[in-house]
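Annex B. Sample input.
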Amino acid sequence: MKVRLDWHFDRSVTVVRTPYAELHAHTNFSFLDGASAPDELVERALELGLNGLAVTDHGGLYGAVRFVGAAREAGLHPVVGVEIELLDALVPDPDGIVVSGRRQRRPRASSATGRAAGLFGHQPGMEGAPLVREGLPARPRPDRRRLPGHRDPVKEDLRGVGERIRGPHLVLLARSTVGWRSLCRLISQANMAGTKGVPRFSQALLAEHTEGLIALSGCRDGELARRLRVGDRAGARLLAERYAARFGRGDGPAGSGFFIELSHHLLPDDDWLVTESAALADELGLPVVVTNDVHYARPADREMQDVLTAIRHGRTLDTLADLRRPDGLSHLATGEELLSRSMTLSPAAARTWREGIDTSVQLAASCAVDLGFEQYRFPGFPVPAGETPFSHLVELCQTGARRRYHPLTPAVVRQLAHELDVIERTGLAEFFLICWDLMRFAKSKGIPAQGRGSAADSIVAYVLGITRVDPIRHNLLFERFINEGRTTYPDVDIDFSSERREEVIQYVYGRYGPEHTGMVCNLVTYRARSAVREVGVALGFPRPLVDRVAKALETYDSVMVRRDLEADGGFAEFFRRPGEVEVSAAAGAVALAGEQGLTDSMGQLNHGRGGRLATGGA
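Annex B, continued. Sample output.
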């Protein structure tokens, strides 16, 4: 009897994707630290198939609106957050070791447990050994001072103001619109308590704004990691318990919760730190979440991040030493890549690491914030008793039409009625009243003022005295200014005399109140020539040479700069990326908010010129 065996080989390979959402990422709105714009991170997250992405810039929400818009347009689930730097520790720190990040002599392990564990990774036979328990020694962390590539957080300078000491970090995510408001209030009050550009986040202030917020224990510079790294295991345990009591275990007010954050960048003591953190979470019954502390979108962008770090510290690349991020792994990563970093962990720690990857997806999905910036919220224009904003607007238009037109022709009456009908349906009566009021005040004080732009197409703007062009006489089309099919609101540009502009600003503050009024924040940014100067110095070129190259550029525009640089082969390679430092700046203006006030409606507030508030959420 013969038996025939037929072999069929399936050459197709099934790739099992590991779902993952990155919940700790910095954009270039972490000034001179993050190397990628919000839309670049969104684009890369889509390429990698991530389930969600959180932007957690340092101390502010400057890029939040841009990020959320880009993510929603691309179909990526956005999560809004911030990484704050705290002034003080949650657990008493009498020697200032944890807050300052100063090193403390590592305690010697007093039992066979610590000695047998070795310096790195899992050791056979150690599965049952105690790790993080008050009064019991844990696996000793390696002495990184003897290892290449170690990073000393004390020497890092987040804002580039000298070699200052940094406080412990904490990541906060908005789980809901309530959480978004908590973030805005927290950041605004920290900005008001601090100096310009240096917010003061205290534990007392944080305790007042936890509703709807998720707290992650932070990166290597978080208080939890710092305590573990200096051997204060009892303090780390107490810290986790207190944060869990403050934020809850996912069941706090409006969905707040505390999670222990795990990150692994293949640094010498990352196995040890992840194992300790995972064991602490297991002991206290706290959830963990894996993040990659992202500072740039792609691995190739590390070079740009190094350049930004050099600019921040006023150094050249070859003198940065351990000020740069040593790992080269702070890019957006897939779940598979992060899962591979657990290969050197103990079985227990590896299981917890996998749980943290799964948790990232669940946590991202639970966060849903509606910024509501598509809607305009007017501050409430005061009208006479018994009238509505629209009825008051109609009365003002009738009076103004009689003053402007002699006689009132049927064409004027028809156009005025048409525009008022559109204004009523679009809810813009208060908008026109506010503009009219500003012009009325300026004229009463003899301040030169004039409206311009597409508002000149409106007979309502003309009879209210906002513009000086007669749209009937010049046959202008109102629909260029307002039509019901447009999704954006009309734009009225009013120019006031620069010499007396301050009088108008003070009137607005007095009319609507400081809680509803703020100066629009300007971002002072690099243009092409200044970017070339900064990058050239960071790359080590002599400053006189860099200045000559910058002055020789034809224009400040980055497109023209690239053309000029490409024409010089010697500099094209070294200056190929100055345009990535360039960001456009916004013009100044005054913002008015609705009944909820500036903070809830428009995001964080900052110090403005002359002690006034300035918006800074976009």
